[in-house]
Amino acid sequence: MRIRLTVPENTSSSLVEKLNAWEATITARDSSGSQLSFVCEIEPGFFRDCDILVRNLQGRMEILAVSVHFEGDTHVDDIADHVDLQPSLPTKGSADPIAQLSEKIQKQTISSAAPKKVEAKQNQCSTCSAVVGDAKEYREHFKSDWHKHNLKRKTRNLPPLTADECSADVNLGDSKSDLKDYSF
């Protein structure tokens, strides 16, 4: 990473010594008044140590670039060009690269030909202790009278009711037991 370090001139020698120990590359130096400013490229692993040192020296640090690459470094774009990042393992009795390639293609064809069973993700409502289907059904559940009723029960530290129990409770209008359970 590329950073700018500004420290008082009288403490700059200890900073330069530490940067050399961290194998940092100092790309620019500038002095203004009693302050020295260094622009350097440092390994990200030394960032915290460098920050602590600069603060102890009554200086300040600025991050100029997080990702700095040198010539010859591997970039993510270069890696994307490679299809198979793992080295190919030699197969039994086939030293010919063409035979190895055809075997790989056959394995890929066989594995991709098998139909994959796609399961819909099941969501669970923690208020009602019920498993609800996909995301659309899950959102609809929150709008239901069953969920709203169990939410009221939850605020009163009462256990949740099943859907049948809730509909029976609401349909019968058993208000006396509700008033006892929901005493204000």
Fold topology:
Elements: E1 2-8, H1 12-21, E2 25-32, E3 35-41, H2 47-56, E4 60-65, H3 76-80, H4 97-113, E5 123-125, E6 130-132, H5 135-143, H6 145-155, H7 163-172, H8 175-181
Pfam families: SBDS_C
Region (Disordered): 157-184
Domain U1-type: 120-154
Walk me through this protein's architecture.
- This protein has 184 residues and is α+β, with helices and mostly antiparallel strands.
- Among the domains are: 2-65, Alpha-Beta Plaits, CATH 3.30.70; 123-172, no CATH class.
- It has eight helices and six strands.
- A four-stranded antiparallel sheet has the order 2-3-1-4, covered by helices on one side.
- The radius of gyration is 33 Å and the shape is elongated.
- The two termini are 62 Å apart.
- Residues 75-89 have low confidence and may be disordered.
Helical/strand content category: alpha+beta
Q: Could you give the distance between the termini?
A: 62 Å
Strand arrangement within the widest β-sheet reads 2-3-1-4
Shape: elongated
Keywords:
43% helix, alpha+beta, two-stranded antiparallel ribbon, 8 helices, 6 strands, Alpha-Beta Plaits
Brief overview:
With 184 residues, the protein is of the alpha+beta class.
